[in-house]
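step: validate -> pass
step: tokenize input -> pass
step: predict -> running
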Amino acid sequence: MKKYDVAIVGAGVAGMTAAIYVRRAGKSVVVFEEKVPGGQIVNTSSVANWPGEPGISGADLSREIKEQMVGLSAELEYATVSSVKKTDEGFMVETDDGEFLVGAVILAMGTEPRKLSEKQMKDAGERAISYCATCDGALYKGKPVVVVGSGNTAKHEMAYLSNIASKVYHIHHDEPIPEEAVAVFVAIGRVPHTEVAKGLVDLDDDGYVMAGEDCLTSCPGVFVAGDCRTKNLRQLVTAAADGAVAGNAAVQYLG
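step: predict -> pass
step: emit ->
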């Protein structure tokens, strides 16, 4: 059984930033990732809102953060976490690559957007599909776009795009996509990857880990960072901020 001071579940921007802060404080850390470091941002060709590097690709940004993290001797484990349990010695993290005993845990599993229906995907054709108006809205300045969705997220996306696009169409899930729209903004909700957090920390009705800007969960020693936390704005910069806060909080918890 391997032992570390801190385990981080998820190697997105939030998780990797947390690892950087933990290592800079001199604590050992292991970061678990199922797929590739960086999460969903890896597939983004151009990141427009990362301070100081507008236009950097998601893959390059992820690589740079990973190199910084690994350069500080953070351990990166490509493994699936099946459970996190509180024990008398700390926390037991069970994975498909064995068990790990740690003193603190940072949950940074992220979320996944709900996709368009098969009918609407076919309808969209070659048009651009975005899941974030704040990220991509500026690319369609003065052009007609459509927002798909019916909840508060859709309303927020429409309000944001109304100051950028020439026209913003609004349709519900499964309705035809207007031919005039050059881009489709999908706002039909996201699914947080918080299965391993069930029974460990409090979740809201949508499955997000309940925590404020301090990233403290209902379970002492467990912290949360990034999109899987209850919050209003989910961006790379807020993920990085969460990672810094959660990493520092874990270090303070360990003493």
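step: describe -> The chain has a mean pLDDT of 95.
step: cleanup -> pass
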